[in-house]
Amino acid sequence: MAILYICTIPPTVAHTHTVIFLHGRGDTAKNFMHSFQQWRDSESRSLVELFPSVRWVFPQSELRSPARFPGARMSQWFDTWDIANLQEKEELQIEGLKQSVASIRLLVDKEVASLSGQQEKVVLAGLSQGGATAVHTVLNLARGLGGLMVFSGRMPFPNRTLAETRSVLGLADVPEDDSAVRTSPVLVQHCADDPLSRIQNGREVRDSLSSFGAQVEWREYPTGGHWFHSPDGIQDAATWLRARVLQEN
How does the average pLDDT of the chain come out, rounded? Predict the structure, then answer.
């Protein structure tokens, strides 16, 4: 198991889309959901208010014992030895990431079923380590999603081909072609002053997904730290969701 429980914000009108949003390392679904509701665009509107037909789903990662700190327990989608250098002892990431991606795929299937099998109505998003997990989930899906949003993210196991990246986790029911990646539009946002996930990490996510055939929209902000840029980042996310995914006027 890689999901302990799920928090949701239900739609206030007829349900048309779902956004599954993965929290960062050390955070909780409940805390992340509350923070999410405070983000505002330039007109002080939240994403919940802007998209009333969306169900927002916030899964809680498993509590894991970091290899670097034996005996400790923390909320994380996968283990890392050094968050500043994911390639150091990168094999530590495999077990947790494999379990988390498998669990998120099941959650995606559940939300797709709630929308009459319309895979294009589900968007996967993540912040920081949640963004890294979301990336690998989309890479290991049999069918494309409505979209992928990555904020302050990282790219575990970079500098590989799509096939090589998939083979790291070795999940079952993974396609051999790139159609799912090519048909899932991507938004990547990163703040240049992020002290935890450096701006080059976001660029690496952008470049890796682009090399796999994804259509990536990149947004870089001068300030904002290891978080979302407000209001511009929220405004850009809303515009992307509306134009690329929800197709609202």
Answer: 93
